[in-house]
Task: inverse folding
């Protein structure tokens, strides 16, 4: 369990994290979303006691990180996979961390096996590929068999197989009752992995909700509709006459909003029109997220760097 | 998951020390720089012995330890690198996540450096003296008193390692820290003469001056490095090194990583 209360961090005149309160619960994978510069990394660094909040507090399992007797055995973290000295071997890197928290040497071999780095254990870290470096970071996070995992962009640099591996790993960790908190800018990935979402923009909380609810609530949604080409014009006129909005959609000929699938079906039957496909759709997390952060940006009055921020997340 | 082979004990200072030792011993750069501390002193004795370049008024001890002043600088560099290397590689984040007490991290580094440099300093100086004594023409030079000065010299290596650690923590960048350490050891004796009577105070307070007094070399004249005795000089250097280390701990505690 991670609990942030009114967490605030300012750098000079710039507020990176602004009275942020949230709770990350055990047993779930909680995704941490926000555009670049939204304050995700800063927040995670404050959880780990690396940066000191200007005001507010954050605890892990009821204690501030600095008061944990053996922090690696409670919290495993991956903030920056490059934070390994290139001249040190994979094994020695992990062995040092293990010793710092009185974790047995055998556990080093276990996590090496777990992340699939056993064969390169005695190579220097600078020879590792980006993906292997990321696996080493994950190994370090798992070293103390922690109750809480905090991972900043863990899938960076991983190939498809690696991404799936991380997804399964995180889900199984959460299924064991652990707290998993991860940030990612890969929203499609977040949609598949996370159960719960914490969304921030400009250091402020935008949403703290279950993934499904988040999509359902913020989704534009609609119904995908496919009809025979010769009836398409009549169908469109009919639907629009009953207050629906009909748009072209990449996934099918039309996306209908304003009417439920039941209403569309009944209308079609009443007018003897054929339907080849009728699929209720929710927006993807990416769409919802883009809409949401855009409006949060507009809310702030569309200043120069806000526009920049929007471009960043649309990209 | 019951596979975790941990001991249940709360990790104590020893764990932080073991962590620092593992990091230190697992890098080629720190291993070689530390080895250089010992090698330079020993090679210096051989060189002075064979070249016959020793001033007639010098001592066997002082002559044998001619290059110990360079070794001492390298000891300071080793101290700086143990922390600057963490900043340049980015491991400082994982180090402080593993051991959140920043005072404990620096204390562990200081104990490791001091212990290691004391032993290396002691062994290297003893070997250098033995070599110098064997090679230099016997009876030509005053012998110099090996004990207890030798322990003071070894302690000075330890102190300078800690001084380098403190400077490294304050400066963070390796190049900046190395320049600062070397400047602190070299500049006062280079520019001391410009300050007239103040020279004795400026040059006399440096680790270099303390070393010259401890090795009883003829360079350690009252005009150059003041009349403060060898041991008080060592005490003075130790005192301000500790003060700098405390300052470094304070800075590290306040600083975001």
Result:
């Amino acid at each position: 369990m991670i609990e942030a209360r009114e967490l605030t961090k300012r750098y000079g005149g710039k507020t990176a994290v602004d009275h942020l309160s949230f709770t990350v619960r055990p047993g779930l994978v909680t995704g941490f979303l926000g555009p670049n510069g939204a304050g995700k990394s800063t927040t995670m660094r404050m959880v780990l006691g690396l940066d000191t909040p200007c005001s507010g507090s954050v605890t892990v399992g009821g204690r501030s990180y600095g008061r944990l007797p053996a922090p690696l055995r409670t919290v495993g973290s991956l903030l920056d996979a490059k934070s390994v000295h290139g001249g040190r071997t994979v094994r020695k890197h992990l062995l040092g961390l293990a010793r710092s928290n009185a974790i047995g040497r055998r556990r080093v071999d276990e996590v090496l096996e777990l992340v699939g780095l056993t064969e390169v254990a005695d190579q220097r870290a600078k020879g590792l590929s980006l993906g292997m470096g990321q696996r080493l970071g994950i190994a370090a996070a798992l070293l103390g068999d922690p109750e809480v995992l905090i991972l900043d962009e863990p899938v960076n640099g991983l190939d498809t197989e690696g991404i799936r591996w991380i997804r399964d790993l995180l889900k199984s960790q959460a299924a064991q009752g652990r707290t998993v908190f991860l940030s990612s800018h890969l929203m499609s990935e977040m949609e598949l992995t996370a159960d719960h979402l914490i969304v921030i923009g400009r250091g402020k909380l935008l949403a703290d909700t279950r993934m499904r609810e988040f999509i359902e609530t913020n989704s534009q949604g609609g119904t995908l509709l496919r009809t025979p080409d010769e009836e398409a014009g009549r169908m469109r006129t009919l639907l629009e006459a009953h207050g629906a909005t009909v748009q072209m959609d990449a996934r099918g000929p039309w996306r209908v909003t304003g009417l439920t699938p039941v209403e569309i079906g009944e209308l079609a039957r009443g007018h003897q029109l054929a339907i080849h496909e009728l699929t209720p759709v929710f927006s993807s997390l990416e769409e919802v997220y883009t809409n949401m952060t855009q409006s949060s940006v507009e809310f702030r009055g569309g200043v120069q760097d806000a526009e920049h921020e929007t471009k960043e997340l649309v990209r | 998951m019951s596979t975790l082979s941990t001991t249940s004990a709360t990790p104590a200072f020893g764990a932080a020390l073991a962590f620092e030792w593992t990091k230190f011993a697992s890098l080629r750069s720190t291993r070689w720089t530390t080895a250089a501390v010992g090698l330079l002193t020993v090679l210096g004795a051989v060189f002075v012995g064979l070249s016959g370049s020793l001033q007639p008024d010098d001592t066997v001890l002082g002559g044998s330890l001619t290059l110990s002043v360079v070794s001492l600088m390298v000891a300071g560099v080793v101290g700086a690198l143990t922390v600057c290397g963490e900043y340049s590689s980015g491991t400082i984040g994982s180090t402080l996540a593993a051991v959140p007490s920043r005072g404990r991290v620096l204390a562990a580094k200081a104990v490791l450096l001091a212990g290691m440099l004391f032993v290396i300093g002691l062994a290297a100086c003893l070997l250098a003296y033995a070599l110098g004594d064997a090679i230099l023409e016997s009876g030509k030079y005053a012998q110099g008193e090996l004990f207890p000065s030798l322990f003071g010299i070894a302690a000075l290596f330890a102190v300078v390692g800690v001084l380098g650690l403190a400077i490294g923590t304050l400066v963070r960048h390796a190049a900046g820290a190395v320049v600062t350490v070397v400047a602190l050891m070299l500049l006062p004796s280079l520019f001391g003469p410009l300050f007239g009577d103040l020279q004795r105070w400026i040059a006399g307070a440096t680790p270099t001056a303390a070393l010259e007094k401890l090795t009883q070399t003829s360079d350690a004249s009252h005009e150059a490095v003041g009349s403060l005795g060898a041991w008080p000089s060592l005490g003075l250097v130790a005192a301000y090194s500790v003060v700098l280390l405390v300052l470094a701990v304070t800075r590290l505690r306040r600083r975001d990583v």
The domain at 2-210 of chain A is CATH 3.40.50.300 (Rossmann fold). Chain A touches chain B through 45 residues (CB under 8 Å). DSSP finds eleven helices and 13 strands in chain A.
